[in-house]
Amino acid sequence: FLTLGFLLFFGICFGDVVYGTMLMGFSYYIMYKYKNYEGIRNFFKLFFYAGISTAIIGAMTGGWAGDIYDAKYLGENNLLLRLRNSLMIIDPLARPIIALVFAIGLGIINQFYGISLRMYGELRKGRVGNAIFDGVLWLIFLPGIIIITIPIFAKVPGGIFNAGLYMVIGSAIGLVLTQGRNEKSWIGKIVIGFVSMYGILGTYGCTSFVSDILSYSRLLALGLTTSIIAMSINIIADIVKPINIIGIGAFILVLILGHTFNFLVCIISSFVHPARLIFLEFFGRFYQGAAIKFQPYGFSSKRIQVINLD
Fold first, then answer.
1. Predicted pLDDT of residue 74
2. Single GO cellular component annotation (predicted)?
3. Do residue 274 and residue 131 come from a single domain?
């Protein structure tokens, strides 16, 4: 339920072929060095796969240590430039609006997936009514809202708009009548139903949906940040290159130090923000607390010995 989404989000945030290759190499080294430590090995195995995702998405978005492929660094029509152009699908720096729409689209899909998991969980417990009221109705209402707002940005056939309008009206009636079903009076049921649609109470809501999908725009922002900082490092390195005899050495040194710094900083943000999207926006759609308190049977460690003083 989580791995593919996390790897995709990580790759979008970090998207660079060179950085992805560095991450794979570093992770493989740690896995090999600490192969007898299962926890460390498994943790860096995740980063190894994240490096693969980073390299693939970097190739699709044209990120190679920023723009190190540029003619002013490697010469006209160099091999890396030709490779970059042959693999690139979209340049987020040149077409940021399309990249933003893609990021928000991922957020919408991820949110609907979370609602579907809630339905699945309710069905496993035999709560068919909850699956319909807290799942199916939202999966009709929210897509309907999206459909009727599309004409604000682009032209759509009237039939599609009408279908979206009917979806919203029909599901809204169902939500108003069911979201407050635990209230005793009909007035309370209706009031809670309306309030729940807005998002103040209940399992979901319009405001929650909008705020959650907008949070996925951070994927675009972090991806652009990685590329822009890398490009800035390349520019600084190019500035020092003409300095007498030491110019080439300074150029290489700035590239190594600068990209190492960017690599380390962006790893942190590329890990933290996708994790936040999963634990907050995604888990919020289906995760429910309350369970038997964890009682460990014992403790085992190769490094720590616990002595019971009782």
1. 82
2. vacuolar proton-transporting V-type ATPase complex
3. no
* Measured distance CA(56)–CA(62) in Å, rounded: 10
Q: How many CA atoms lie within 13 A of 144 on its CB side?
A: 18
Residue 132 structural domain: 127-214
Cβ-Cβ contacts under 8 Å for 138 (sequence gap 6 or more)? 115, 171, 175, 203, 204
- What's the confidence (pLDDT) of residue 54? 96
Residues 245 and 232 in one domain: yes
Residues 210 and 143 in one domain: yes
For 73-119, write each residue's pLDDT tens digit: 888 888 888 999 999 999 999 999 999 999 999 999 999 998 899 89
- Residue 305: predicted pLDDT: 72
In a domain, 53, yes or no: yes
Identify whether 305 is part of a domain: no
Residue ranges of the chain whose pLDDT lies below 50: none
Let me know if residue 300 belongs to a domain: no
Question: Can you tell me the distance from the alpha carbon of 124 to that of 269, in angstroms, rounded to the nearest whole number?
Answer: 36
**Does residue 275 sit in the same domain as residue 195?**
no
> Are 267 and 210 found together in one domain?
no
> Do 212 and 111 contact (CB within 8 A), yes or no?
yes
Radius of gyration over every alpha carbon of the chain, rounded to an integer in angstroms: 25
pLDDT of residue 78: 86
